[in-house]
Fold this protein.
Amino acid sequence: MIQDYLNHWFIYWRSTNPALFLTARTEVSQRVEGLDAGADDYLPKPFSTAELLARLRAMLRRKDNYTPDLLTFHGVTLNRSTYELTFNGRAQNLSGKEFQVLEMLMQNPRLIVATEQFITHIWGWDTSVDASVVWVHISNIRKKIDGIQAPIRIRFVRSAGYILEESL
């Protein structure tokens, strides 16, 4: 799967350079997967040389202003390109669903995110996933937060949901 390959590749390619994927994969789902895996642009074959050069020029214009897509809360950083959680030089890789759960929390720090919001946003409206799946992902994320000794925690608020906050 392209996601697994890219996650492995990004471990070695730690840079702030944008990435352009050139590929024969043309299905929309494959392009979305490539973009979600960390590509900044995606150009399926066949393509014209003029279009390729124009996309490269656009990326080079943005390069000086390019920064990885990072979310930061209380010194803890979530890298949207690598699915990596870091604090003080320590890092943990997240699975796709763990990343999506933590991303929602980091986009809304100190605010309650309902379990149903996770299910609807991550798995979709017509899913058969229940709250126990969210619990498992939250539990795994908590272990990874503890593993890097980050000063944040995910707290459960009864009958409401989860909240990302500073550790006490």
Remarks:
- Residues 43 and 52 are 8 Å apart (CA to CA).
- The mean pLDDT is 83.
- The first strand starts at residue 20 and ends at 23.
